[in-house]
Design goal:
By secondary structure, the chain is of the alpha/beta class. The protein folds into three domains: about 1-30 and about 40-155 and about 320-360 and about 450-495, FAD/NAD(P)-binding domain (3-Layer(bba) Sandwich), CATH 3.50.50.100; about 165-315 and about 500-555, 3-Layer(bba) Sandwich (FAD/NAD(P)-binding domain), CATH 3.50.50.100; about 365-445, Recoverin, domain 1 (Orthogonal Bundle). It contains 19 helices and 27 strands. The chain has an eight-stranded mixed sheet. The protein starts with 19 loop residues before the first strand and ends in a 7-residue tail after the last helix. The structure holds flavin-adenine dinucleotide. Flavin-adenine dinucleotide binds near residues 52, 71, 74, 174 and 356.
């Protein structure tokens, strides 16, 4: 987007108060909307993205206070936790999406929506440049928007770790289109495998399904696929039923390694019983249309196996438009866009970021924790009494909820190991250094919140509430004490509340980590999963559709037709 002064503007679509300008090659001085004298214009809020973070922000924002515009290339919200179910037809794609226009219609004020992709953010001039993804607009698909506040909720993209051949030969599972493509490809693999002209070896290769990544998405997809094969496809393709193989490749030592260890062990044992091959400690080094090549980390051995379909689910990375913004705001060296605890992008006062596209900057977390301990240890003795220690921990957990998550996972929250010495006698004092060392092992895990819908939705709600109270806070500037540094801030910082997480494992079984360090596994947990995911739907329409899809599947099985 060259910034030369030559006016090559093809057409200007000035929406009163909206600040929308069509552009082709350069910007014009006539872009600003005409405002009636005497009317104080509302502040312009531009929201990029209509996923978990964007829609929860819009749902809770009092849009009558602002001039709100939303840009997203997809005109719907997708309930991503049910995407793996869409890949096998357990749930239909349309059952888990809600049109953006239906969602914004319920808002208090007017919200304008543009179906387009933001391709460039100009932070210095408070402007975003967008391209419509609708065909045949002949030069009119490009436009720019001015903003007073920009809310980034653009999510992330799949991380391929630059592994050769992944983009060309693997399926991803990020959105509805991906899930629909996988569903068709599974049917293709079976139809191809039963063709009379194929050798047994070729049939076997076509029916080798590989899942790369042993996180929740990879595990859930492998489980769904296994159920689909066992409950539906083996009846429809009996000739090849014994040739089907599902392999799950994980570079770490265990699958579901962000879950409690009991859950990851349960999942591995269940997959082994089901005949899903779990290959841990393997790193994929290249993929071709016929083979996947991997290296066993412990021995260095390299092997290649033929495949029919690969689903790549190994984590997320930053999308290009955010990467470009990071360069502009001095965050070029970081991997992920950083915000402060109030979700403001570091280096740009008017830009906020929520959801998977950002992380709250916790780089100095250990320094802060050390400073809290040092302040509490007034005598410089290196120890604290139990009461002092408890006060310090209350303070730390309030500032850094991630510490609580980590401590829970490591079963340290009751601090039993700290209360008791090696002989099992109760200590009178706690060794600060010992505890800090235990925490520092977890430093990297504590730095970022997990990239989940839960975090994204809570951030959206938090930010909307801040926006709703912005005027009130300006009139009464005395806000809550800042946690870091000195002085005060308008709002309390964002605080994440963890409600637990699920991992469906197939065969009507699931595992769950619930609040209060509860772990639940088996058939009853699957029913809990059904009720939670039905209740979490964004509308009654999708709730009814999802539940009727589940019922249809119970009665008639899944539909494998290629439509
Ligand atoms: P997204 O929901 O990805 O939304 C991004 C939005 O930005 C989209 O509307 C997109 O169209 C738009 N966008 C993209 N680029 C641009 C652009 N250039 N300009 C404008 N708009 C743009 N989390 C859980 O908590 N529980 C689960 O069970 C769970 N299961 C999952 C299963 C799968 C298969 C996947 C893929 C994810 C799952 N997650 C789950 C994670 C969860 O979906 C994400 O953390 C969540 O979607 C992040 O929300 P977001 O709003 O940041 O991004």
């Amino acid at each position: 987007y060259p910034s030369s002064s030559k006016l090559l503007l093809l057409c200007t679509l000035s929406f009163s108060g909206g600040g929308v300008v069509a552009y082709s090659e350069s910007r014009s001085e006539t872009e600003h909307p005409v405002v009636d004298a005497g009317v104080v214009p509302k502040k312009k809020v531009v929201v990029l993205g209509t996923g978990w973070a964007g829609t929860s922000f819009l749902k809770d924002l009092d849009a009558s206070r602002y001039d709100v515009q939303v840009v997203s290339p997809r005109n719907y919200f997708a309930f991503t936790p049910l995407l793996p179910s869409v890949t096998c037809g357990t749930v239909e794609a349309r059952s888990i999406v809600e049109p953006v226009r239906t969602l914004i219609k319920k808002s208090k004020g007017e919200i304008k929506y543009w179906e387009a992709e933001c391709v460039k953010i100009d932070a210095a001039n408070r402007k975003v440049f967008c391209n419509s993804n609708i065909d045949n607009l002949v030069g009119r698909g490009k436009f720019s928007l001015d903003y007073d506040f920009l809310v980034l909720a653009v999510g992330s993209q799949v991380n391929t770790f630059n592994t050769p051949g992944v983009k060309e030969n693997c399926h991803f599972l990020k959105d509805i289109e991906d899930a629909k493509r996988i569903r068709l490809s599974i049917t293709d693999c079976f139809e191809k495998a039963v063709l009379p002209s194929l050798s047994e070896e070729e049939r076997r290769s076509n029916l080798h399904f590989v899942v790369v990544g042993g996180g929740p998405t990879g595990v859930e997809f492998a489980a769904e696929l296994h159920d689909y094969v066992q409950e539906d496809l083996t009846n429809l393709y009996p000739a090849v039923k014994d040739l089907v193989k599902i392999t799950l490749i994980q570079s770490g030592d265990h699958i579901l390694n962000t879950f409690d260890q009991r859950i990851s062990t349960f999942a591995e044992q269940k997959f082994t019983r089901d005949g899903i091959e779990v290959q841990t400690g393997c790193r994929v080094i290249s993929v071709s249309d016929k083979e996947i090549t991997m290296k066993v980390k412990s021995t260095g051995e390299v092997c290649s196996v033929p495949h029919g379909l690969i689903v790549w689910s190994t984590g997320i990375s930053t999308i290009p438009v955010i990467r470009d913004l990071m360069e502009q705001v001095g965050q070029g060296k970081r991997r992920v866009l950083a915000t402060d605890e109030w979700l403001r992008v570091k280096g740009s006062e008017d830009v906020y970021a929520i959801g998977d596209c950002c992380t709250i900057d916790q780089r100095k977390i250990m320094d802060d924790i050390s400073a809290i301990f040092a302040a509490a240890d007034k005598n410089n003795s290196g120890t604290l009494t139990i009461e002092e220690f408890q006060d310090v921990m209350d303070d730390i957990l309030l500032r850094y909820p991630q510490v609580e998550l980590f401590l829970k996972k490591k079963h340290l929250l009751d601090f039993t190991s700290l209360w008791l010495d090696s002989q099992g006698n109760e200590r009178k004092e706690i060794d600060i250094e010992g505890f800090k060392q235990a925490l520092s092992h977890a430093d990297s895990q504590m730095k970022s919140l997990p990239a989940t819908a839960q975090v994204a939705a809570q951030q959206g709600t938090y930010l909307a509430r801040c926006f709703n109270r912005m005027d009130q806070c300006e009139e009464n500037p005395e806000g809550p004490r800042r946690f870091r540094g000195t002085g005060r801030h308008k709002f309390l910082p964002f605080r994440y509340k963890h409600f637990g997480q699920f991992a469906p494992l197939g065969g009507e079984q699931a595992a769950a980590e619930l609040p209060g360090d509860w772990v639940s596994m088996g058939h009853s947990t699957q029913w809990l999963w059904y009720s939670v995911y039905a209740s979490k739907q964004v509308s009654w329409r999708t709730r009814v559709l999802v539940m009727s899809d589940w019922t249809r599947r119970f009665i008639f099985g899944r539909d494998s037709s290629r439509v």
